Amino acid sequence: MPEAISGIVAYPVTPFADDDTIAVETLHAIIDRIIDDGVDAVAPLGSTGESAYLSEDEWDTVAAESIGRTAGRVPTVVGVSALTTNATVRRAKMAEQLGATAVMALPTSYWRLTEDEVRHHFTALAEAIDIPVMAYNNPATTGIDMSPEFLFELVRDVDNITMVKESSGDIDRMHRLRELSGGALPFFNGSNPLAQEAFAAGAAGWCTAAACLVPATVVAFHRAVTDGHREHAQQLFDQLRPFLDMIVSRALPTTIKSGLHSLGFDAGAPRQPLLPLGDTETVRLHDLITACATG
């Protein structure tokens, strides 16, 4: 049986060297740091990992290095989204061969997809591998919005789709997923500012790039939630909230890489057309990281 996935699922960036190749040593250092600080799973090659901006060779390198470096210390959830079903299946098979615990996919497409097309896409993915699939809803990046009812049906009807990541920013959808499944469907929050409300709604975990910058504080918040220490959880989330708002004010590869640079991790710049934060924003972000780590 695959490992159960819950808690803090950390999304590392894909670091680039000066020559625009994958900075493998930096990737290893980021993964070691977030695992050492207690995250519950690592999820490379999501939106934060700039999966959409990588060549297939680069994607393969990041998948292999991330899974290899994690080395079973925590579960790995590998983002396999691609423009075509065949390319998504190729990535999923590769992730499975490398030892991933599960894969995660968005319904990414140049053309707007019908529900039948999305269902066919996810079914083909799930049937091609033997490890679990997390269906990821992020209408802000894909332009495709999967309703709670549709997501519940996917999990109900396709054996290997077992989890949902909900990133629409609508807390009512998480309550609806819980209602539809009677609490049996593991759903994960992907909207950083909603983390506290999501756990109250029954989320199995929080998928977050925030753990790249303040892993200990994010982990402490989750532990306070699970241990029923409501006051402490509230204090920690109040401490985190301005930082969480800041990192989602621009694309996550932009803010997280700028934050890592301020902490001494040279993860390179985000791939263009994304641009790094300006000096003023970078200083503000570093101040918020410091406040989260020491407040």
Structure explained in plain terms:
By secondary structure, the protein is an alpha/beta fold. It has one domain (7-215): Aldolase class I (TIM Barrel), CATH 3.20.20. Helix content is 49%, strand content 11%. The protein is built from twelve helices and eight strands. An eight-stranded parallel beta sheet has the order 2-1-8-7-6-5-4-3. It is globular, with a radius of gyration of 18 Å.
The run of helices and strands is EHEHEHEHEHHEHEHEHHHH
CATH architecture: Alpha-Beta Barrel
Tally of individual helices = 12
CATH homology group? Aldolase class I
- The top-level CATH class is Alpha Beta
Strand order of the largest sheet: 2-1-8-7-6-5-4-3
Number of strands: 8
Alpha carbon gap, first and last residue: 41 Å
Shape: globular
Biggest sheet features: 8 strands, parallel
SSE layout:
Elements: E1 7-10, H1 24-36, E2 41-42, H2 56-70, E3 77-79, H3 85-98, E4 102-105, H4 115-128, E5 133-137, H5 139-142, H6 148-157, E6 161-166, H7 171-181, E7 187-189, H8 195-200, E8 205-208, H9 215-226, H10 230-247, H11 252-262, H12 279-294
Parallel strand pairs: 1-2, 1-8, 3-4, 4-5, 5-6, 6-7, 7-8
